[in-house]
Amino acid sequence: MAAEAAVLSRSWTVGRYTATLTVPRPKHGAVAAAVIEWDPDVPQRLTDEEMEQYRRGRNAALEAMSKALGIRAAVIDL
Known about the structure:
Shape: elongated
Distance between the termini: 25 Å
Low-confidence stretches: none
Number of domains: 1
Radius of gyration: 13 Å
Number of helices: 1
Mean pLDDT: 87
Structural class: alpha+beta
Largest sheet: 3 strands, antiparallel
Strand content: 25-35%
Strand order of the largest sheet: 1-2-3
Order of helices and strands: EEEH
């Protein structure tokens, strides 16, 4: 992520990976965008169990982000 000041950063384990959601401080009136980074690399495929771990962690991180910023967040899984 760019060197902008983050308002929130949360990490969680997904199988052998670590996913980190980072949200920069949004500018007034701008759209806020979250970035998810993977360590050690971006997985090519997740098992059903790993996908559930990812979604649980993502949802918890987005809930924390929403509370910290006083906003509502929506996620659409396809």
